Amino acid sequence: MVIWNPWHGCTKISPGCFNCYVYRRDAEFGKDSRIVSKTTSFSLPVKRSRGGEYKIPGGERVYACMTSDFFLEEADSWRAEVWAMIKERQDLEFCIITKRIHRFMAKLPSDWESGYENVTICCTVENQNRADYRLPIFLELPIRHRTIIHEPMLEEIHIEPYLASGKIEGVTCGGESGPEARLCDFSWVLETMRQCMEADVPFYFKQTGANFKKGNRIYRIERKDQMIQAGKAGINYKC
Asked: No. of H helices and E strands in the chain?
């Protein structure tokens, strides 16, 4: 797995959104998330070694904009360059995670059609309100591969109608990390797992988050253990 951040920054914090996590993570490294700019890794997918080989070998899965958002309005002028790199590297699988699915069509390549085979668009929905706003848009867009991400998962979320469309290839759940992390209840995760199993859609429990409720107990879990503890739950389906 490769993390690729072609640009840095986000423009807004709203309650219950992924950007809150972005701001906290950037602050740890002395970055100001209000400033949107290209990063030094902007052209990483097409960079080559002295021997002429790509620095990212073929077959890797590349996650884009993990501390930003691929569809930021401020990055519109750079997006064509990024799509060109993605098209050049057909040997890589690109996963683009976004909460701005309503901006998907902005600066889309002219040859996109129904989507590039090597691109998966991952739409984040942290609560029911955002699920019911973003997912209908998500399903109508020209996208070849789609997944849903509940991270940070802030409440029980019902996505049965969207799973029934047959257009969703997987769902990931995860709690929130950081010193001010909001609660993630294991019962919410189990409910999403149930929905996925019923629809026969792959399900992945990625991480517990820092404040994790199971039954009547709330556990404070260190970042290094969050993915480990999620794995120990043994609830992944077809993943």
From this structure: 6, 12
Residues 48 and 62 in one domain: yes
Q: How far apart are the first and last CA of the chain?
A: 15
What is the C-alpha to C-alpha distance for residues 86 and 50, in angstroms, rounded to an integer?
Answer: 22
Task: List Cβ neighbours of 46 (8 Å cut-off, separation of 6 or more).
Answer: 54, 85, 88, 89
- Verify that 64 and 33 share a domain, yes or no: yes
* Per-residue pLDDT tens digits for 146-162: 999 999 999 999 999 99
Domain count, the chain: 2
> Are 107 and 130 part of one and the same domain?
no
For 2-17, what is each residue's pLDDT tens digit? 999 998 875 443 333 3
Q: Outline where 15-156 has alpha helix (H).
A: 18-28, 76-88, 128-140
The whole domain housing 73 covers: 1-120
**C-alpha–C-alpha distance, residues 82 and 158, integer Å:** 34
